[in-house]
């Protein structure tokens, strides 16, 4: 199944979308896709894998709906670092499923370029099989210039790991004399994270009735509206999505001032901007080189200080 699908909205749903777009639309929505295995049990599917396949079909649908609604950026929590604790058979199956679906993204290259969709896989890539790392690198490099929409797939991701790697990046920068200790502030910390090129999510939607973030974007959600629905991930429908966005529109104006105040404080605490900007630029080049090297080599990249951020 392709990642790009045609619109399946009814005329009434299209009308509802147009009404919704009269108000503020979230720039960035993040989804915690929970409930695939329970969906498989509930619907008597043969295997848990069938539940994950239904979950992928729903993700494709959601991505299309968000494009039609006008959401510029979507982040989907596909695989947590904690998921590696599941049985070896299930983890191996999920890795194979991810490989198949990511290869499909490469096949969809022309459609991604036509629609201007940039795809980023964010997380600790060094934990993944090397062949999967190389597929991910190709996807990210081939779509990096697309700028009309962004799809982030959080894979082998956790917020604790993301923050740990950000600290390591800054420490390495100070040791290399690329940074001074006085340069360290909230903005620099964020610029060294996996999600450094993304705005904080305006809205996080979690399915399956759970009311926790499960170590997902915990640093980025200080002013984010968090919605926890009882439906399982494959059951999420367009009307439910529109309802959550309508609720967000009522909530948004109460938190605009808080976010702007935080942003202005960060700007006022910067010290040597040129030095910091130079460090961030070098770090971005290291990330790109890491992805390029993944495509060139057949050997496993296993280094304690190499992560999806791409620095050593």
Q: Tell me the domain tally.
A: 1
Kindly state the mean pLDDT as a whole number?
Answer: 90
Helix content: 40-55%
Structural class of the secondary elements? alpha/beta
CATH class: Alpha Beta
Q: What is the CATH topology?
A: Undecaprenyl pyrophosphate synthetase
Q: Uncertain spans, ≥5 residues at pLDDT below 50?
A: 298-312
Rg over alpha carbons: 20 Å
CATH superfamily caption: Decaprenyl diphosphate synthase-like
Strands ordered across the widest β-sheet: 3-4-2-1-5-6
* Number of E-type strands: 6
**Strand percentage, roughly?**
5-15%
Determine the N-to-C terminus distance: 37 Å
What would CATH call the architecture?
Answer: 3-Layer(aba) Sandwich
What is the chain-wise order of helices and strands? HEHHEHHEHEHHEEHHH
Tell me the layout of helices and strands.
Blueprint: H1 11-20, E1 28-32, H2 36-42, H3 48-69, E2 73-80, H4 88-107, H5 109-115, E3 117-122, H6 130-143, E4 149-157, H7 159-175, H8 186-191, E5 203-206, E6 225-228, H9 238-252, H10 256-268, H11 273-296
Parallel strand pairs: 1-2, 1-5, 2-4, 3-4, 5-6
Helix pairs in contact: 1-9, 2-3, 3-4, 4-6, 6-11
Give the structure's gist in a few sentences:
This protein has helices spanning about 10-20, 35-40, 50-70, 90-105, 110-115, 130-145, 160-175, 185-190, 240-250, 255-270, 275-295; strands at about 30, 75-80, 115-120, 150-155, 205, 225-230.
Report on the structure:
The structure is a single chain. The protein has helices spanning 11-20, 36-42, 48-69, 88-107, 109-115, 130-143, 159-175, 186-191, 238-252, 256-268, 273-296, and strands at residues 28-32, 73-80, 117-122, 149-157, 203-206, 225-228. The protein has 312 residues and is α/β, with parallel strands linked by helices. Strands 3-4-2-1-5-6 form a six-stranded parallel beta sheet, sandwiched between helices. Helix 3 (48-69) packs parallel to helix 4 (88-107) and helix 6 crosses helix 11 (273-296). The protein is globular. The protein starts with 10 loop residues before the first helix and ends in a 16-residue tail after the last helix. Mean pLDDT is 90; it is low at 298-312.
